Amino acid sequence: MLTDNKKSLPLHIAIIPDGNRRWAKEKNLEPWQGHKAGAEKLEQLARWAFNNGIFCLSFWGSSLKNLEKRPLREKQELLKIYEEYFKKLIVDEDIHRNRVRINVIGKWESQFPTSLKKIILEGVEKTAHYEEHELNFFLAYSGDDEMLDAVRAIAGSGIDPKEITAETIKQNLMTSKLPAVDLLIRTGGEPHLSVGFMMWDIANSYLYFSKKYFPDFNETELSEAINEYSASGKRGGK
Residue 6 gets which letter from DSSP? Predict the structure, then answer.
């Protein structure tokens, strides 16, 4: 059961949904069937989180390396899953009832086919005016590249190095409009971070590692993660 103290809820939860391919392998399924199961789980968790007072929820969908190194068939199937999922998301009653703003972060526009880009952009545009919740997808995203791009932008701006502040860095990140991450969850049983995921924004996050593969990570364990965060007394990076 989720804590009754709404003030102790994390403002921003980010999830690294690891384990889709291993989940599929153990069930003698194709890798993309694991990704599809993961997409369905993502939908369930997002609905539950917003109904229970979470403001901002972020999911890492794919890194640049995922898209570049995965076998062609798996990449094609993954893009199909994205297209199917975002089509559903655009017309989802809960998205509009809960006034959820959709953000898609990463270098996906240079990686995805035109048809998929149109669908994603439609979802972003239709929800841009919503302010009650935020749902963020990190696609074709690398935190290492994000930080390097930010450093290059700052260096190229001509700003005096003495004038560079933490806010300067934040303003030059892809995540410039997102709040810092309070609770970072990684599924899949491997307690580590990956490719600098949101490295600036998770600097003071509470970390929760689940042994479950993402398709098996349910609302009960998400609630447990939130309760563990709340019991820690960790607030605002302190």
Answer: G
- Cβ atoms of residues 189 and 167 within 8 Å: no
The whole-model pTM stands at 0.93
Q: Is residue 126 part of a domain?
A: yes
Mean pLDDT rounded to a whole number for the chain: 92
Q: Indicate which residues carry an active-site annotation.
A: 18, 66
Contacts of 160 (CB under 8 A, 6+ apart): none
Number of domains in the chain: 1
φ/ψ region of 168 (left if φ > 0, alpha if ψ in -120 to 50, else beta) reads alpha
d(CA 45, CA 41): 6
DSSP code at position 108: G
Whether 127 contacts 102, CB under 8 Å: yes
For tokens 């302190």, what's the residue? 238
Residue 161 amino acid letter: P
Phi-psi region of 37 (alpha: psi -120 to 50; beta: other; left: phi over 0): alpha
- Smallest CA-to-CA distance from 235 within 10, 5, 3 is with 10
Question: Does residue 220 belong to any structural domain of this protein?
Answer: yes
In a domain? residue 112? yes
pLDDT of residue 3: 57
pLDDT digits 0-9 by tens, 103-118: 999 999 998 999 999 9
